[in-house]
Amino acid sequence: MKTIIYLIMFILVLPLNAQNKFSVKEWQDDLKFLQKTVHTDYPFLFKKITADKFDLAVEEFYNTIPKMQDHEVMMGFARIVALFQYGHTRLGFRDSPIRYHKLPMVLYQYKDGVYIQGVHKDYESNLGAKLIAIEGMSTDNVLKAIYPVVPSENDQFFKAYAGLYMIIPEVLHAQGITKELKKTIVLTLEKDGKKFESSVTAIKDLEIPTQYGMVKASDDWLDIRNQNETPLYLKNLDRIYHYEYLPKEKTVYVRQSQIQDDPQEDIPTFYKKVFDFIENNEVDKLVLDVRLNGGGNNYKNKPIVTGIIETEKINQPGKLFVIIGRRTFSACQNLVNELDNYTNAIFVGEPTSENINFYGDNRKVELPNSKMPVYLSFAWWQDKPQWENGPWTSPHLAVDQSFDDYKLNRDPVMEAALGFSDNDFIIDPMAHLTSLFMANKPEELMSEAKRMVQDPKYRFFDFEGEFNKAGYNLLGNNNEGALFVFEMTANLFPDSANAWDSLAEGYLQLNNKEKATEYYEKALKMDPDGPTGQNAKVMLKKIKSQ
Prior knowledge:
Strand content: 15-25%
Distance between the termini: 88 Å
Mean pLDDT: 94
Largest sheet: 6 strands, mixed
Radius of gyration: 26 Å
Strand order of the largest sheet: 13-14-15-16-17-20
Helix content: 40-55%
Low-confidence stretches: 1-14
């Protein structure tokens, strides 16, 4: 009898997936197959990572496979695929032969932290709590630990989807957040000003009912949002798109959450109704909300773009607003690009989760032994010239949401669009600052630049990068002007090694080797092992040899 009891106890404490499903050789052969496939059929993906660095990462992973459990190997493949940093290029978790578990909750990263936005009724006391730590590791460090597993196109993509990974015990263990693989995870939470711990048990192959990243409230699943009312962007989510007239604001609001035809009404028909309404009614503004739009078929964007262009009544500065955010991705990035190119749209909200020009449209590659699916992108989408490419489309007017905003059904993004006034807002910061430079108003330029850099409305605008680019454009033709821009940049961004490196180059162009040496040394000290520091080191040697 004792033997049976001991056997049962032994089985109960076995870690998840204790016995590997595949041999070391099978996994290693799968890895080599993936490596060869990428080099042979997808070499164009080596844009953000070099082939050499990719091969080095593969070699390191290959050598550690013998020490890994299957779930750790799966996460290793996820890390390898994520190196390309294209959201369409990813490991197929859902169809993987290695099954995994999920904690029954939905996490969402608001501007004031990560919160439990939705939860199964068994853990109702956790609903609305702020996540402080997982198994003793702070939330910030957890996010850093799981970042390599997520195929993050940019930080917005990670912000949108990190919560999906944080609730998987297999991810938590593989990334060193938990010391062993286990189903029950201890969370440190904060609610109503009090901290407490909660043990949450993960469920195998759990399907959490979500819609556009948010839990669908039901008898079993709870949402922290007050369900007695619904903000515009969450209305009628069973429809791909809908529109509503706001008579007080004389505004037509359109939410479109996929680039697909709704079964009840195709895109051309829907938008014809929208534009006919605008033309025949008292309408001052159009707000197009694509913050939840993860893409679809970009060939269906034409009626939207041409319709706006033709509707001169709203295709004017201050009358057309496009709400973007962390889930604006893929074919919707194409839509955003076209609206940016051809209309007078003002973008409001958060940056998109897609690069401006990007690799999309993936093909499934099945690994021969494990049959684990890997999706590799093959189509390059370029709506803008390469020099206008960037990690994302930034909003002209930056607005994000707090936890209380969501909980209380407030929509600060929509409020910003409705309350927009161009009296205190500059839609093109560089054009404004360039005009001051050309008018030879250095003091006003410095004052305006400082004000705008510190204004949160412009926080996603890359002032440092744009200033640096402007300085180098001047270098050689107007060295005094370039030096002025580089000095302004260094003063505004004193913690940037690159700003000081550029200032050093400005002084070197004026043959002031003393100042150039001073600032190259400063850049080297700030970034001793990085590319800026290495450039500064080379330049210092060059100056000394002259």
